[in-house]
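Intended use. Records such as the VOC family protein entry shown here are meant for training and evaluating sequence-to-structure methods. They are not intended to support clinical decisions.
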Amino acid sequence: MPSRLNPYISFSGEAKQAMEFYKEALGGDLAVHTYGAFGSEAPPGYADKIMHSMLETASGFTLMGADNPPGTEHKPGNNFAVSLSGDNADELRGYWDKLSDGGTVSVPLEKQKWGDVFGMCTDKFGITWMVNISERQT
C-alpha cells in the first residue's frame, strides 16, 4: 500500500456519530474500531468509544477520527492531527525521524497492541503528527 497523508480528527465522545455524518455527507466506506475490540480491557467507560475509524470515499478522500483517549483534553479547534500511514517502514520511519526532530514525542514509534508500529509527535511548529506503519499482508 502506498503511503498516505490525511487529516485525523479527535472527538470528545461523539466520534461514531461524527464519522457516520461524514459518511452520509461524503459517501464511501467507514471502518470503526472501539477501545473494547482490541482484546484487552478497555478503560472504564471506553469499551464502546471509538479508538480508530477511517472513512474512504470513491473520490479518493480519506478521513480518520477517534474519541480522545482517557486523560487527554479535548480542545475544539486544535483537535486534529496529520496522519501518515502505509506499509513502507523505511519511508515512514524517515518521515518520523525528520518530523520529530526538534519537536516533542508523545507516543514513541513502536509496536502497538493492534499489531502496527505507531508513534505520535508534535513538530517544532506545534503540528501534531501520527505515523502508523502497517504490517505487510502476506
